[in-house]
Description:
- By secondary structure, this protein is α/β, with parallel strands linked by helices.
- Helices cover 34% and strands 25% of the residues.
- The chain folds into 3 domains: 2-120, NAD(P)-binding Rossmann-like Domain (Rossmann fold); 231-346, 3-Layer(aba) Sandwich (Rossmann fold), CATH 3.40.50.720; 358-445, Alpha-Beta Plaits (2-Layer Sandwich).
Amino acid sequence: MNIVILGAGKLGLRLVEALLDGDYEVTLVDNNEEKLSRLAQQYDVMTVAGDAKTVETLREVNAGGADFLLSATTSDDTNILAASFAKALGCRYVAARVRDPEHMNQLEFIREHCNIDMIINPDLLITGEIYRYLIDKYTLSNGIYTFDKISLIEFEASRMPEVTGKNLIEFRSLQPDFLVIGIARNGKLIIPHGYDVIEEKDLIYLIGEKEAIFRLSKKVHSKFHHADARRVMIIGGGKTGFYLAKRLSEYGSKVKLIEEDRQRCHYLTNKLRNVMVLNGDGANIRLLEDEDLDKMDAFVTCTGYDEENLLLALTAKNHGVEDVISKVSHESYKELISKLGIDIVLNPLDISTSAILRAIRGSKRVLSSVLLQGQAEIMEIYASERMSMLNIPLKNLELPDHIIIAAIRRGTETIIPDGDTTIKDGDRVIIVCLVSDIGYVEKLTRPALRLSIKR
Length: 455
């Protein structure tokens, strides 16, 4: 598959990294020749220096013959124009990153009239995940999500006391019909393995045969006790803060939005209804206390600084706020996050890359997918005879820790696999992977796969 990426910024490079292990020919375009020279040495991609919005550059990289093009430069207008031009030249599928709030109410119009297949707005995507957590609490259709005859259930570990304190090997001996595919703990979603221990306050995700899951749900499923998110404080009035405040106020929440830049506050005040916009330093704890931090149902940090977001989220948690959410873009904070006790931490790059990869893969390989806590993706994949992972015991595939083969549907049979299970041609396979490491799935789904395999 031929893929063209316009813009070597964070999103463009994250997508490049995710595609490296797949069966793709990637061309990366940017106007910074020095940066492209460095990237050409680091990644096995073709690099082209040029202006993304010119037909000349698009023709040079054969955008018209590409299967997929993403325009992710720093300019919304360039992205819209480049994607539209590429589509006119014959590109099969085009996507454009569009972030400006002024476009928020006309994204569908832009998509339709500029002939763009997909509009990517990272701030809207992360807003959707935060909103879903605060309002829907990540319930999967009353606690259950179903892939045909395989189902997933989420519940608090305390609802199954016989497994708390047990590791995954012990859990499987007690509950052989189920597999734990995820544990949400202290703001971090863990893809668990044999010796990981289930703790009482964990939110756990189990997968199993549909009828068995529905029987289990009668025992463990209950409506979680959460605040109604009626009072929400948001720190940071950038794009994410703006989108989130607007959506929560429309839901009926009482929102306080704190932004340090006075000019930005004027903009927010004019654009947002029923939102209290405060001009001040969100890192000023006295200000937060004066604005009734202790009485908030939820607290969201979405400034442009990860360190500040995490510090303020920890402060809110220490003040007893029930739901604390932080936007963090750097992977280096992963281990720190798990120790802070923040309810959920979301990375807009991970969420955006996951959405783009779903579009690239299409429906032939990935039949369906769903995000867990905005941090992991569950995919149902059709196993074809060209994949070399077939007919090999799973224990010999040496899969990395961030991925699990969770279930297999073979004809009318549902298989919850163990190390000796093999995947056959025609199987429908449920794979769970952290979105930050989603690129490895390309190794599993591409033809002529070469993995580290023990024979």
